[in-house]
C-alpha cells in the first residue's frame, strides 16, 4: 500500500463538512446507496503531547483502520443486536463523488460510518494501574473517584476493571472526571448504559488479547446517539481498541512496578522527551520532524500489534 516515502498527511476531497482532527480527516458524504454518512480518513499524521509532528508514519492510518475493523467485526459477532457500531463500509468506492485516484489514495484507511450525535464523554476502562490513573492513585488512592486498595504498584492489575470517564475536549487535554460528574453532564440512565457496555467490550477484548499473548491494560471508547429525534440506543463510534486509543503490553515482558514496553508511539514519545530534556523542544507547536529510525520503529510496533492480535500479516 504505502511506502516509507508517501505518508498521507492530509486530504482535500470534494465532499462537504471537512473537519480535521489530530489524526483524522472527517467529511459528510452519501453512500452509493444514498445513505447519509461520515467518511473518516485515518491519515498518517502522528501526535504526541497534543502536538502533531512535522512528518508522519507512512501506513499508520492503514494499520489503525484494519485493527479497528477487526475489533468491530468481533464486537458485532459477540454482541449482536445488543450493541450496534457505526461502521458501514471500509471501501472508499462506496462513497459517491470520489474519482479513481482519490479512491486509491484512501484504500485501506477509511471508515464509512453512520452519522450520530456524539456523547461528549470519553468512556475509559482501566484494568491496570498506569498513566494518569497511576499518577492520581499516588495522590489519593483512587482514580476518578473510584477507591482502590492500598499498596498497589505501577502497572499492577486491578482487582477488577474500573470505568473512569473523562471529558471529550476539542482542544487540549481531556479531563478525568468522576462517574457522578459524567451523570450530571449527560444523564445517569445514559451513563449507566455506557458504563455497562464499555466494561463488557473491554472484558471481551482483554480476554481475547490475553490468548494472543497481549495485555490490554486500558482503552477508551466513544459512543453516539441517533440524530433523527430523541431516544434510541447508543452506538459505538470512532475507532476501537487500537494502539492509539489503548495500552497494549506484551504479556511475556509484563512486570509490575514500572512502565511497560507497549505497542504504540513509545518510540516517538521517547525521542521527543529526549528533545525536551535537552532543551531542543518545548512541547509547543509546530512539532519537530521525526528521524527515519523513529518512523520505522514506530511503524514496526503498529504492524506487530496487528499481526499478534489478528494472526495475519499486513504488508506495507
Q: In words, what does this structure look like?
A:
- Strands 6, 9, 10, 13, 14, 15, 16 and 17 form an 8-stranded mixed β-sheet that branches. Strands 1-2-3-8-7 form a 5-stranded antiparallel β-sheet. Strands 4-5 form a two-stranded antiparallel ribbon.
- The longest helix is centred in the middle third of the chain and has 24 residues, at 188-211.
- It folds into 2 domains: 16-115, Phosphorylase Kinase, domain 1 (2-Layer Sandwich); 118-253, D-amino Acid Aminotransferase, Chain A, domain 1.
- With 316 residues, it is α+β, with helices and mostly antiparallel strands.
- 32% of the residues lie in helices and 24% in strands.
- It has helices at 60-79, 100-106, 131-140, 179-186, 188-211, 266-277, 292-310, and strands at residues 16-20, 24-30, 36-42, 47-48, 51-52, 84-85, 87-89, 110-114, 117-118, 121-128, 142-143, 146-147, 157-163, 166-167, 214-225, 235-237, 246-250.
- The chain is built from 7 helices and 17 strands.
Amino acid at each position: 500500500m504505502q511506502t516509507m516515502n508517501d505518508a498521507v498527511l492530509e486530504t482535500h476531497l470534494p465532499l462537504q463538512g471537512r473537519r480535521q482532527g489530530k489524526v483524522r480527516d472527517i467529511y459528510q458524504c452519501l453512500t452509493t446507496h444514498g445513505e447519509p454518512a461520515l467518511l473518516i480518513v485515518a491519515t498518517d499524521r502522528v501526535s504526541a503531547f497534543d502536538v502533531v509532528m512535522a512528518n508522519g508514519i507512512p501506513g499508520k492510518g492503514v494499520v489503525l483502520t484494519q485493527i479497528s475493523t477487526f475489533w468491530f467485526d468481533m464486537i458485532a459477532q459477540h454482541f449482536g443486536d445488543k450493541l450496534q457500531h457505526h461502521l458501514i463500509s471500509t471501501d472508499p468506492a462506496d462513497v459517491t463523488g470520489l474519482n479513481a485516484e482519490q479512491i486509491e489514495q484512501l484504500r485501506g484507511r477509511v471508515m464509512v460510518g453512520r452519522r450520530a450525535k456524539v456523547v461528549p464523554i470519553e468512556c475509559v476502562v482501566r484494568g491496570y494501574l498506569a498513566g494518569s490513573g497511576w499518577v492520581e492513585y499516588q495522590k489519593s488512592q483512587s482514580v476518578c473517584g473510584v477507591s482502590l486498595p492500598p499498596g498497589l504498584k505501577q502497572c499492577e492489575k486491578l482487582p477488577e476493571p474500573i470505568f473512569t470517564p473523562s471529558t471529550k475536549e476539542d482542544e487540549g487535554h481531556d479531563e478525568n472526571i468522576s462517574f457522578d460528574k459524567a451523570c450530571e453532564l449527560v444523564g445517569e440512565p445514559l451513563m449507566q448504559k455506557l458504563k455497562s457496555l464499555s466494561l463488557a467490550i473491554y472484558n471481551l477484548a482483554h480476554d481475547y488479547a490475553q490468548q494472543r499473548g497481549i495485555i490490554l491494560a486500558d482503552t477508551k471508547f466513544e459512543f453516539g446517539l441517533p440524530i433523527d429525534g430523541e431516544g434510541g440506543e447508543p452506538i459505538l463510534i470512532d475507532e476501537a481498541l487500537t494502539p492509539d486509543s489503548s495500552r497494549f503490553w506484551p504479556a511475556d515482558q509484563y512486570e509490575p512496578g514500572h512502565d511497560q514496553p507497549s505497542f504504540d508511539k513509545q518510540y516517538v514519545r521517547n525521542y521527543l522527551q529526549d528533545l525536551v530534556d535537552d532543551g531542543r523542544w518545548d512541547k509547543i507547536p509546530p512539532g519537530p520532524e521525526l528521524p527515519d529510525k523513529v518512523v520505522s520503529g514506530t511503524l514496526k510496533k503498529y504492524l506487530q500489534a496487528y499481526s499478534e492480535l489478528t494472526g495475519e500479516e499486513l504488508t506495507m
